Hints:
By secondary structure, the chain is of the alpha/beta class. Helix content is 39%, strand content 17%. The protein has helices at residues 12-17, 20-29, 49-61, 81-96, 121-128, and strands spanning 6-9, 37-42, 65-71, 103-108.
Amino acid sequence: xxxxxxxxxxxxxxxxxxxxxxxxxxxxxxxxxxxxxxxxxxxxxxxxxxxxxxxxxxxxxxxxxxxxxxxxxxxxxxxxxxxxxxxxxxxxxxxxxxxxxxxxxxxxxxxxxxxxxxxxxxxxxxxxxxxxxxxxx
Length: 137
């Protein structure tokens, strides 16, 4: 049986659809069975105020395992993509070093690029797999 994954998105739209209190109650309510936190960050915008809020919730509910998903990498200018991603990853690493997360991975993806196949999704699954506990019944 696969335990629940904690999924926290720093997208402002997600915040607008559910009140902070309701979101916090939902997350805390399921905290006992969260094996992994997945933090989705829009790579075109980088770290936002709500990113820090999500990290605080993650530290409370799942302080050991985190995967940061830098989404929408296909929307970065191709000639500056690698440089922009490295800069963002460096900033994220510096931020995460100040948290309780013992293990974290940062994976760049484009789940639904306009011009082709998804980018980085196989790597994302590969990075998540060893962080999730399985219980044989």
